Sequence to fold (114 residues):
Amino acid sequence: MTAYAIAHLRNVTPNAEIVEYLERIDATLAPYGGTFVVHGDLPEVLEGEFPGNLVAIAFPGLEEARAWYRSPAYQEILPLRTRNADGDTILVQGVGPEHLATDVLAGLPVEAAR
Fold:
């Protein structure tokens, strides 16, 4: 099942380190099947606040996403970003096309499902 690495980046300082990070990240993704699905776009905020940019990278599964993030190649370039941007990064499992909103109820206690 597709998994995603999602970053919410704020206060990015465009400089030589960020350029180097961008020039090198694609090579770190390739061995793990990672591809950008959203990259740096300013989201259209419909509810609440969302300052900054969003990046989403798709992987074949959570194991590949974890392996990419922990890889020596990515860990080597990670400080280039973290020194020049504030942000949060998460990994999340996707759902298939047959998923229904009510499918999440199966994991809830019976009283919460009513």
